[in-house]
Amino acid sequence: MANRQMGKQSIRFENPPIISGAASVVGEKEGQGPYGEYFDVIEKDPKVGADSWEEAEGKLQEKAAMLAIRHAKLTKKDIRYMVAGDLLGQLMASSFGLISMDIPLFGIYGACSTMGESLGIAAMIVDGGFAEHAIAITSSHFASAEKQFRFPLGYGNQRPKAATWTVTGSGAVVLTKSVRKEEMQQKGEWEEISKRAKEEKGKVKVKGITTGKIVDYGVKDSMNMGACMAPAAGEVIVQNFIDFGYQPEHYDKIITGDLGKVGKDIVIDYVKAKGYDITKQYMDCGIEIYGEEQNTQAGGSGCGCSAVMLAGYILKQLENGDWKRVLFVPTGALLSQVSFNEGNSVPGIAHGVILEKM
Amino acid sequence: MANRQMGKQSIRFENPPIISGAASVVGEKEGQGPYGEYFDVIEKDPKVGADSWEEAEGKLQEKAAMLAIRHAKLTKKDIRYMVAGDLLGQLMASSFGLISMDIPLFGIYGACSTMGESLGIAAMIVDGGFAEHAIAITSSHFASAEKQFRFPLGYGNQRPKAATWTVTGSGAVVLTKSVRKEEMQQKGEWEEISKRAKEEKGKVKVKGITTGKIVDYGVKDSMNMGACMAPAAGEVIVQNFIDFGYQPEHYDKIITGDLGKVGKDIVIDYVKAKGYDITKQYMDCGIEIYGEEQNTQAGGSGCGCSAVMLAGYILKQLENGDWKRVLFVPTGALLSQVSFNEGNSVPGIAHGVILEKM
């Protein structure tokens, strides 16, 4: 077995799993934004036909998962594992929304970095030979997140400039075992090799990951999560360069999850202080997802934000050949209403995923 | 690469990871129970020197993790990944308690089944060649759980007979790559083989896993979680028998996490209806951990319950040779205070882990 470990925190997959299908389901506001045309489904009903915000968010996950599996030309039965999470206490959206999937579940929580974490675990499962197909799913919902973390919607609190707007949406990505040429050649499976190679052509693969640590710079402002998360993103990006021996130019894009306008400046400065200039490659899903006129202050956030931008836009840019190599870095603020009320800081975490076209 | 997939939901590891170190840290009540002498540390201070219950629980995790690493004769730097979780919203105990570990983190949530989930993911990471060492950690705390899920402690509500008592404690287990004879023989590393073989002798390994699905039988009573979780445990146990072709007699013990006295009867009946009698092998950590006189109604619960019983007692029974093969099945009730208040049912999930002495 080849050594897959790179440097301190990274993995280079031996047989990089292929993204065989992806889907994005978003709310109306996200549909009205500049990326509206890229999303698969725009839900007009904020409750998605459910009775509560939490159930509504669960329905977004279920819809995204089913659609991603269909896009991969598979059925539920083909998927061996779900790796799923959301922002709610006890992962309410995943715990209830995914019951009908009837697939073994690993529930995960990495705040808004969850899509990076789920892709990382799912890719290890597939590359490690534990599954032919696994699905990574995350979601967030503006109303369930405001209820969980901030103020009742009816209270109509005023939002500071540094605040972000939680994205209503769910993204799901199916990872599939890539053709293992050596193994198949030994078995003389020539037809299968050429069939699979044809299917895989043009697909995006997960080439590697850089898994983040908890980073705490002592920021206590839950309305400025960009500042809490930016150092975690910076550390993971720099570690990715060190572990793989890359320069920023290796990537066409380096895309964080939801740092917003405040976090963007901090992460670029942080990485510059370590000797790397990512100004040209840098992009943030949170800044992109809403238009200036949509009045969302610092941008979008939530673990649905990077997930729908990945499934809806980023993967398509890679498939089209507009980009060849992307470092995708969902970013999370490890905040809870209890820890906030107890006066704790908001530590950050970020997980890097290297995406490349085959 | 050998096919590690067994049946529908199980994995048989190619090179079963070794449990190189484990540790259990519990509260005073658990220390006074029948297994008190087995736990590594009994904390007299329920706040563990912290200012809040959540921080206290985080400190339990930190202590258990550090001690398990020391027992494995390793240092923090040797551990490539932490796979950790707890019951609190946004995994407060792990998110804050593990900052000082400075190790890449996968945060996970499977309610009280979390120790089974973390062992499963950590074992795949190690067997897949992604790490030499990974640590699985979970915790619960009576006071933080009551605050999160039920009533303020000062309210002094009366507990029904079916209620369980959340265990204050954290268990941590270090998984280490086993000697890969074939690979090492090819490289001619004869000395290393004999050195490692000696170190591994008498250690317990993770032979396989059976990963659970969400199971919802519509039970809505948050004071009777045994009934919510028992069908999930039953499904995983039966699936383990089917996937591996085992009969109950294959195991010396089949140990669920925290079904308590009510759940015990249900799971035995459930499995019997599928054609297997596990009466002789069956044991439940929740029933065991407290004595009758400790007045804990149906028994202990929480994701610390199965974790401290594993690290404190079960692994020692295996190392001593009293038991040879154990199916360890932590059980979780997917409940949140919000979902409960919204009138939802309490779905269950359970994850099976096969433990054997080398």
Could you please describe the fold and organization of this structure?
- 2 copies of one chain form a homodimer.
- With 358 residues, chain A is an alpha/beta fold.
- Helices cover 37% and strands 22% of the residues of chain A.
- In chain A, the strands form 3 sheets. In chain A, strands 1, 2, 3, 4, 5, 6, 7, 9, 10, 11, 12, 14 and 17 form a 13-stranded mixed β-sheet that branches. In chain A, strands 8-13 form a two-stranded parallel sheet. A two-stranded antiparallel sheet of chain A has the order 15-16.
- In chain A, helix 3 (92-97) links the parallel strand 5 and strand 6 (105-107).
- In chain A, helix 8 (225-244) packs parallel to helix 9 (260-273).
- The longest helix of chain A has 20 residues, at 225-244.
- The first copy, chain A, is globular, with a radius of gyration of 19 Å.
- The relative contact order of chain A is 0.19.
Arithmetic mean pLDDT of chain A = 93
| Poorly predicted ranges of chain A | none
The structure class of chain A reads alpha/beta
Radius of gyration of chain A: 19 Å
- Shape, principal axes of CA atoms of chain A: globular
What is the share of helical residues of chain A?
25-40%
What is the oligomeric state here?
A: homodimer
> What order do the helices and strands of chain A follow?
EEEHEHEHEHEHEEHHEHEHEHEHEEHEE
Task: Please report the total strand number of chain A as a whole number.
Answer: 17
